[in-house]
Amino acid sequence: MNANTDFKTAETAVRDLYYAVHKGLRLANARMLVALGQSDPADDGEVGAVLGKLAHHLDICLYHLKHENARIHAVVDARVPGASDHADEDHEHHLASFIELRQLAAAVSAATVDRRAAAMRRLYQRFALFVAEDLQHMHEEETRLMPLIAQHFSAAEIDGIEHAIVTSIAPEVMVPFMRVMLGAANRSERIATVTGLKAGMPPEVFGQMAAALVHPQWRHDDWDEMERVLC
Question: What is the spatial distance between Cα 15 and Cα 196, in angstroms, rounded to a whole number?
Answer without folding.
Answer: 14
